[in-house]
Design goal:
Chain lengths: 240, 298
């Protein structure tokens, strides 16, 4: 039905002798939320970092809008429309919240639309609005996570990739962040979400992949995986 | 009379401090971005002065054009050094790039001896009106002083404007804490780092040329002392911080002049003061006056 915006074929990632990702295939469909779940060290971050060009030692194809992009550097990937809210937030601690957001739109020349997007992300995260002049490093962990997502959105990406946005957040904030992800989808954007919080991720995802030590062991519609006994036992902590 | 002396020394101190500050900014910007102490910085300054001298003497350019050419070529030299010597080592252990920087410094000095000769040359290429002395009551001030103070002030404002009021400057500050994440913003990190070296080198050359106008002798090791002092100024201010480099530069220049002015028999120890200030300050504030944010919340 919907077409594939980002196609990953036989992706392998190596760190020296470590073979972290072992030939995985992932399709990210336009306008959908695709999620990648898996335990610590499964290779989720390696996959996202490969897509965005931060990992260079990789094999396989990454095809975005029908074009091979696996050779591109991060700045070129981001300009082409894929943004990442990275693992561990990685906001700039020595810049103000406002400057962090401006950095998100660094490469953009469409000043008027950047302004509009700024208004939009501040509406998504009203807490940031009150703290525009505050240094990024002085924000609370939860606020930093919001800033990381907001900053990625400032690139006006077609695909928003998020690496464990709920990590270390209180339940109420997790709810807020997942609410924002749904709103981002409603805006017509495509989302690739990496999560450890499998229950929350699968419940909003259209499609999910389960990664285990570098291999995809399961895939299916979000609701189907949520009901899958194996997933329930391994990732949702349910005794079946 | 005491007041006039003080005012006279204040002016001289500001002058020297401004020159230090211009050099220190290059050190601190490069350190802030790459955590690299570019020991070749003072030698880029020296090359810039030679470029200016030869542009005027050998190519017959008017003095102001020669100055601009010297500054531009110094920028180009800095660009080349980063690209050839430092960039390949960006992910290597820090000690490798440090040793490379020291090697680059020796190389630039030795090459200057070969190309320009070791005998000091006179820097008499600027118009005589710079040497006019204006008299205000008991104060005697050279036209050159106004020129140097004016240029220094404008350049310092320019750097602050670039760093805190432009996108490129924001990216420079972002690179200082996190290079990969800055590239995730769609910024071409290599280009911004090149630009930093170019700006730092041009500021050093500008300072070097003004230095040569004040102490009109050019020789291959002339970059060493100003380079060292500026490095100390940058550390005093908190290395990596541009406002710190400004404060450190002025503090150092001012102290040097005032101490020598009021205790003339200590003049021989002049260069020692820089290190005394450094040591005393580092005992009480090891990170310098301005602490640079480097911690990241996890
Ligand atoms: N820079 C690196 N050098 C060496 N090994 C690495 C590097 N980065 C990741 N690895 C290894 O690759 C494997 C996959 O790591 P990755 O970060 O992709 O896992 P992850 O699924 O994101 O885990 P987590 O949920 O804990 O973030 C791990 O075994 C890890 O130790
Ligand atoms: Mg991870």
């Amino acid at each position: 039905m919907s077409d594939v915006l980002l196609e990953i074929k036989k992706l392998n990632v190596f760190y020296g002798a470590i073979h972290a990702v072992k030939g995985i295939d992932i399709d990210v469909k336009k306008g959908e939320i695709t999620t990648l779940i898996g335990a610590n060290g499964a290779g989720k971050t390696s996959t996202l970092n490969s897509i965005v060009g931060l990992v260079r030692n990789k094999k396989g194809n990454i095809i975005y809008k029908g074009k091979e992009v696996s050779h591109l550097k991060p700045d070129a990937i981001v300009k082409s429309g894929i943004a990442l809210a990275p693992e561990g937030r990685r906001i700039f601690p020595n810049l103000t919240v406002e400057e962090n957001l401006q950095m998100g739109a660094f490469f953009r020349k469409d000043v008027a639309e950047v302004k509009r997007d700024l208004k939009w992300v501040l509406e998504l995260f009203p807490r940031l609005k009150e703290r525009l002049k505050q240094m990024g490093g002085t924000l609370s962990g939860g606020e930093q996570q919001m800033l990381a997502i907001a900053r990625a959105l400032m690139a006006n990406p077609q695909i928003l990739m998020m690496d464990e946005p709920s990590l270390g957040l209180a339940p109420l904030l997790v709810k807020e962040v997942f609410g924002v992800i749904k709103r981002v989808k409603r805006e017509g954007k495509t989302v690739l979400l990496v999560e450890q919080n499998a229950a929350a991720a699968l419940s909003i995802a259209d499609y999910g992949y389960v990664l285990e030590t570098g291999n995809i062991v399961l895939k299916g519609k979000g609701k189907e995986l949520l009901a899958n006994d194996e997933v329930r036992r391994a990732y949702l902590g349910v005794t079946v | 009379m005491w007041l006039t002396d003080f005012a006279q020394n204040l002016i001289n101190g500001t002058l020297l401090g401004g020159l230090y500050a211009l050099i220190a900014i290059g050190y601190t910007m490069v350190y802030g971005i790459l955590r690299l102490i570019n020991f070749a910085h003072g030698d880029i300054l020296m090359w810039g002065v030679y470029f200016a001298l030869y542009a005027v003497v050998a190519f017959g350019m008017p003095w102001w054009l020669g100055f601009l050419v010297g500054i531009a070529l110094a920028g180009f030299l800095g660009f080349g050094i980063e690209k050839i010597a430092y960039r390949p080592l960006r992910n290597a252990p820090r000690i490798s790039s440090l040793i490379t920087a020291i090697g680059m410094s020796f190389f630039l000095e030795s090459l200057a001896v070969v190309v320009f000769g070791g005998i000091p040359k006179s820097f008499n290429i600027y118009p005589k009106f710079f040497n006019h002395t204006l008299i205000f009551g008991h104060l005697r001030i050279q036209t050159l002083t106004f020129f140097i103070l004016g240029i220094t002030f404008l350049l310092l404002l320019g750097v602050l404007w670039l760093l805190y009021r432009t996108k490129t400057g924001t990216a420079m500050r972002a690179i200082a804490t996190d290079i990969p994440t800055t590239s995730l913003m769609g910024a071409n990190v290599d280009r911004i780092i090149s630009l930093t070296f170019i700006i730092g080198s041009m500021l050093a050359a500008t300072s070097g040329i003004m230095w040569a106008m004040r102490y009109p002798q050019v020789q291959p090791y002339m970059g060493f002392v100003p380079g060292m002092k500026a490095f100390v100024a940058a550390v005093i201010g908190g290395i990596g911080s541009v406002p710190g480099a400004l404060v450190g530069g002025f503090l150092l220049g001012m102290t040097e002049i005032l101490v020598v002015g009021f205790f003339p028999n200590l003049a021989g120890y002049r260069d020692v003061f820089a290190y005394v200030i450094l040591i005393v300050l580092l005992m009480f504030r090891p990170t310098g006056i301005f602490t640079v944010y480097s911690e990241q919340k996890v």
